[in-house]
Fold:
Amino acid sequence: MAEHVDIVEVGPRDGFQGIGPFIPTERKIDFLRRLYATGLRRIEIGSIVSPAALPQLADTPDLLAACADLPGIVPQILVPTEKHGLKALQAGSDFLAFVLSVSESHNRNNVRRAPMDSAAEYGRLCAAMPEGADMRLNIATAFDCPFDGRVAEDDVIALLDVLVPMRPGAEVCLCDTTGRAAPDHVMSLFRRAMARYPQVTRWALHAHDTYGLGLANVHAAWLCGIRVFDASFAGLGGCPFAPGATGNVATEDLVWMFDRMGVHSGIDLGALVPVACDGAVIPGGLSGGRVRAALTAKG
Structure:
């Protein structure tokens, strides 16, 4: 396998955040350790947000502390505001993922402020980042908004024009928040953005599989040169602030596809499938994906 892909496991954040019954912290840590044992190294372990807004993620600092026992793990923490980003840094995080939406409707529904207000907070948070800390910039509703429909590429570019100069070394992730993007749209936006911002050397895609196009969109981004993809074990997930959106593409589906393509992910599919099977039966969870069922079918 000459080529390599980086899969970012976001199940412990995106997969768990919409589940109502609280998953015991000990069980979350067990899932984290089992995911690590499959070869996954970059894992979005949670989010620093208001416990009232997302009570499922209130124990994110406990998961961060558990990472100390996992050599080589890169625990990523999602933050939606400057205040929560500073709290994550104070908790010991050194890899933040700041999220804001292109769509004003979605950004206001999510964090009660306009996108440009969030952009200003991102800039201040970047300035406060200590040396050695890393930043990912998640551009939500880059393709489609649950309230306004398809998002114009010009609107995405206009927002990136403001954000990219604030931290050119940040990884930029375009997020298909609703799962309504199609492969041609994915290719068009990535090609345009990558050509406009040559100073950005790290790009990523966060794809949802609401309409069954998750893998197709990942492959379209791959053809554009993208090598970092978010995925959630068992296809768990769905944005609480995007009505109707289901989970991310399943991690096991991505690993299967890239294995068949001869692309190295460093992830042991045989070890991952049992973890995904257990994830799929978490009470209150909404699972997805196809590979898990295909590999465990009887007869």
